[in-house]
Amino acid sequence: MKVLFLESHPMWIHGLPNGFRDAGHTVKVSGPLTRKKLPRLLRQFKPDLIISMGWTNEHSGHKQQWIKRFVGSTAIPHIYWATEDPTHHESFSLPYVRTVKPDFVFTICRSMIKDYKKIGIKAAHMDFGYHRKVHRKGKVVKRLRSNIGVVANGYSRILKIYPRHFRLKSLDHLIRPLVKDGTRVDFWGRQWDEMKPILGARIPRSWIHGYLPYPDAHKVYNSAKILIGPQNQLSQVTQRTYEILGSGGFLITSDTPEIRRLFKPGRDLVVSRSARQTRKLVRYYMKHPKERERIRKRGRRTVLKHNYKRRAQYMIQQLKKYKIL
């Protein structure tokens, strides 16, 4: 089957599209869309399936109109993967779906399925995953070496808008105590220099390394003794959870029901539910490298089943079940 992805962002073009390739499909990634490029891709590539996902530059208002016009005028099934649910469900995902009118929606949030069905769009749940060629075990990179590492954006501006967001609680018990204690944490990502109001202390500039190209993230995961991974929701896990484990990283994350459903704490990763517990875990595992290594190895084995080839196969299965394909 020929699958066209309407996307250009590095976070999305290296994951699910590669999973479809692994599953035996012919895949084309559009890159930045233009008014002339989209109809040309449809005409020349002749896809059997079109997939859009996330919230990137390819989802601007005028591009939504192009997709509605050019894709909507074909008989090709168009699938949207709503990766911004539930946080931006009302502000983006639902308006996007209402405008573009895809044939089917996959959402990372189970409770949102009913919302899509209410507006006449068939929907199913599909979680994040990882791709083994992108997030893989490798050598320690000297310039990226750290005791404790974080690869994420601070999202300081978004968190001001959502004061009850679970990510605030996650940051509060995972990162805030370390920063306030002066325990060095190396940060890769945007907006960490703006996090004093949230963390209660300013992160020293020497700890902040700025934007990290997505394909290089595994190098940090391989080079840190401990990785701290904040969670966004109680009922779902971040994509980085899979990517860190897939890269063989040792992960300390928030103790949530979904983490416990997918993984076994103390075997695949380590969980914390308080600032005191985070301090204790960091001190303990810094002194016990053999235990870190045991957990790294087991976590990497456990996460294998969450690769994007399996996600692609699941999508096809669901689309056949709902008679989209």
UniProtKB/TrEMBL annotation:
Residues 3-109 form the Spore protein YkvP N-terminal domain. Residues 173-316 form the Spore protein YkvP/CgeB glycosyl transferase-like domain. Signal peptide: none annotated. This is Spore maturation protein CgeB.
